[in-house]
């Protein structure tokens, strides 16, 4: 049952992701009144679609531990172990080698101390 719910979540997420996102696009620069999630954390992935190398650009207004995960559209984790990084204030870049991934769509999920950010990633 959990797997079905996760797959439905991924399908909804893929269908709502914008194809062309501006660098460091964010919905808000403060805590959302509806969700309580701090949306001042920003991220983007370039290039998207990618061939083998994917750059994740992050901005953090305060130090935060970050967990980064890749899932395929069936909800299977693609990177094991999950990458965990403690990032400092400011801009940071993390590069991923996706050469072992098959062509297709993936979900990149960044979980930090105040919430979760997600991006659809296309591997060509």
Summarize the structure.
The chain has 124 residues and is mainly beta.
Description:
The protein has 124 residues and is mainly β. The protein has a single domain, classed as Sandwich (Immunoglobulin-like), CATH 2.60.40.1930. The protein has 1 helix and 7 strands, in the order H-E-E-E-E-E-E-E. The chain has one helix spanning 2-16; strands at residues 42-46, 53-60, 64-72, 83-87, 90-97, 104-112, 115-123. Strands 4-3-6-7 form a 4-stranded antiparallel beta sheet, covered by helices on one side. Strands 1-2-5 form a 3-stranded antiparallel beta sheet, with no helix packed on it. The longest helix has 15 residues, at 2-16. The model is unreliable at 5-31 (pLDDT under 50).
